[in-house]
Amino acid sequence: MAQRVIRGPNSKGRFGPYGGQYVPETVMQALSELEMSYRKLKKDKSFLSELRGYLSDFVGRPSPLYFAERFTAYLKGPKVYFKREDLNHTGAHKINNTVGQILLAKHMGKKRIIAETGAGQHGLATATVCARFGMECIIYMGAVDMKRQAPNVEKMKLLGAKVVTVESGSKTLKDATSQAMRDWVTNIRSTFYIIGSVVGPHPYPMLVRDFQSIIGKETKRQCKEKFRKLPDAIIACVGGGSNAIGIFDSFINEKSVKLIGVEAAGHGLNSGQHAATLSKGKPGVLHGSYSYLVYDNDGQIILPHSISAGLDYPGVGPEHSALSDSGRVKYFSATDKQALAAFELVSKLEGIIPALETAHALAYLIAHKKEFKARQNVVVCLSGRGDKDMPIFFEKEKA
Amino acid sequence: MNRIRTYLNQNKKQKLLIPFITAGYPDRSTTLNLIKAAIDSGCNMIEIGFPFSDPLADGAEVQFSSYQALKNGMTLARTLRIAEQVRKTSDVPLILMGYYNPILCYGENRFMKDAKAAGVDGLIIPDLPVVEASDYKRYAAIHDISTVFLAAPTTNKTRLKQIEKSCSDFVYAVTVTGVTGGGKVFGRDTDNYLKGLGKTLSKKFVAGFGVSSPETARRFCKYSDGIVIGSKLISLMRSAKSKSQGVKDAARFLSSVRKAI
């Protein structure tokens, strides 16, 4: 029961000490309207049935829980199952959240949608629902990410979104998020900001978690169908942490299930070039919430590094900070190199090309296989497909 | 006694002209020259910006000056040294403005203590709304730092009351929804909003964000007790041929605003 205490957020939008609303005054009113609308709609039967309808017929849920037989044989360790979020429409878990938020936006009468994106998966998922609902869509994306995730940029444009190149700072997800927030402050009355992860000011970490929690709900049911019990461990990659929170959510109070989050160690945890926020950061304030963050002695944010654009972020969702402090979820990391190796291995063994983000979770399992027993069942959240990462992979192979 | 309070208690008729100057842009000594020139041009208080890597309430100009200042090695601690330096020759009220993480990292209590000792009188943190500021306000009160919170056109009556209560001496009214910087079009709604604030608030208030000409300054001063000018000064410094010319251009501009209000 002690573990229930850390579930939140509380009335102040906090998970333990983490979270809150560190934003310019201009958006405070909008946050409270958003929270009120959401709390009302989440009890509204017609809203929930509308959401279920889109998740099933547009997204293609439930996503399968797949037994990765050859990967299991290779590991000579536990039985490994993939929760196939890569099979969702647009190829990742991101769409679970954007479908939920666009319905919220629609009910709130907003017509203009903005979003930030790193790997482009959230931008793509946002552009997709905007096309479906006929809404104006503006996506902020760092110049570096636009180059390394070019296939997604083309898709967003085809879907009718305007992709705005962000040239400031690191030219990656951090600066795309800052720029999206500036747009939001400016166009607050007309615009709905679809945040792509469990980050940002309250109520975003809560509502993104709730929309992603479908992953864990299905996984729990599917584990019982496939092997008649709970899994022994669940592994997910963590950037902002939305796929991880989504799959962990139903298992937080199931103490027998080990929950493992894997961050991006970039060139190595001690290289100074990583995005391993929980492993190497300290609590601080960025983009609206108090959470673990990587910053220097003056409080300036340190540019993160990861080969995976989706994990290349200096912060992490506030609920992950609380789950890390409490010890309920254990956080580890995998390097660029390990992720690339896992990317190739799983592609060849299973005929499934995982996203480079996801490859970090797979890399952890490869490195730690001896810690699991053969009779154990491990679920990896296969958060997205890796087509978008082909150019990076082949470039690295040549080098 | 706090210099902001002392100044406001003198109850002068003159409208407040407050420049925002980024510490360390274009360099430390030019910052000091610019502050001196601003005082000589009739500014009543000085806002010194301490740079942050991710200034999300700021437009292109302050993003640029912050980035340059950080590249020049400016820090929160070094910003306090600049305040100390100004204090040696002037009693002008000094207000620091910047984002919350550097202060959190420095330690709130320790920072307020050091700021007071350096001669700082007030503090503005745009990403710290009143709901998150209880510790901050407590430490500020202990060390007699005047807290200035922002009110926005989207702020409702209830929140406006909380904001006014949390401001020690005056309120900072953001003119329009948006980030700092020029290029804004101010419609009648801005006048109505500022006029409404004048009626609602019992404390004094200044208007800022996008004030980039003497005309706009005069227009807003019909309702407010003063104005803040930041991005315009940075763009004047940027476009000048030399640093010293930039200081001259900025001073000339501030003098023209002084005359207008």
If you had to describe this structure to a student in words, what would you say it looks like?
- The complex is a heterodimer of chains A (399) and B (261).
- Chain A is built from 16 helices and 14 strands.
- By secondary structure, chain A is an alpha/beta fold.
- In chain A, the strands form 3 sheets. Chain A has a 6-stranded mixed beta sheet with strand order 3-4-14-9-10-13, with helices on both faces.
- In chain B, helix 2 links the parallel strand 1 (16-22) and strand 2 (46-49).
- The mean pLDDT of chain B is 97.
- The interface between A and B is large, with 36 and 42 residues.
Write a brief structural summary:
The complex is a heterodimer of chains A (399) and B (261). Chain A has 399 residues and is an alpha/beta fold.
- Give helix % range of chain B: 40-55%
Strand arrangement within the widest β-sheet of chain A reads: 3-4-14-9-10-13
What's the SSE pattern of chain B?
HEHEHHEHHEHEEHEHEHEHH
Number of strands of chain A: 14
Find the structural class of chain B using helix and strand composition: alpha/beta
How far from one another are the termini of chain A?
52 Å
Strand percent estimate of chain B = 5-15%
The CATH homologous superfamily of chain B is named: Aldolase class I
**What percent of residues of chain A adopt helix (DSSP H or I)?**
40-55%
- Give the overall form of chain B: globular
Q: Which chain pair shows the most residues in contact? A: A-B, 36 and 42 residues
Query: Which class do the helix and strand fractions of chain A yield?
Result: alpha/beta
Distance between the termini of chain B: 28 Å
Entry keywords:
heterodimer, A: alpha/beta, six-stranded mixed beta sheet, 16 helices, 14 strands, B: 261 residues, alpha/beta, TIM Barrel, three-stranded parallel beta sheet, 9 strands, 49% helix
Layout of helices and strands, plus pairs?
The complex is a heterodimer of chains A (399) and B (261).
Chain A: E1 14-15, E2 18-22, H1 28-41, H2 45-59, E3 65-67, H3 69-75, E4 79-84, H4 94-107, E5 112-117, H5 121-133, E6 136-142, H6 143-148, H7 150-158, E7 162-166, H8 173-186, E8 191-193, H9 204-212, H10 214-227, E9 233-237, H11 242-248, E10 258-266, H12 277-280, E11 282-286, E12 288-293, H13 318-326, E13 329-335, H14 336-350, H15 356-367, E14 377-382, H16 390-398
Parallel strand pairs in A: 4-14, 5-6, 5-8, 6-7, 9-10, 9-14, 10-13
Antiparallel strand pairs in A: 1-2, 2-12, 3-4, 11-12
Helix pairs in contact in A: 2-4, 3-14, 4-5, 4-9, 5-7, 9-11, 10-11, 14-15
Chain B: H1 3-9, E1 16-22, H2 28-40, E2 46-49, H3 60-71, H4 76-87, E3 94-97, H5 100-106, H6 108-118, E4 122-124, H7 134-142, E5 146-148, E6 150-151, H8 157-166, E7 170-174, H9 188-200, E8 204-208, H10 214-221, E9 226-229, H11 231-239, H12 243-260
Parallel strand pairs in B: 1-2, 1-9, 2-3, 3-4, 4-5, 6-7, 7-8
Helix pairs in contact in B: 2-12, 3-11, 4-6, 6-7, 10-12, 11-12
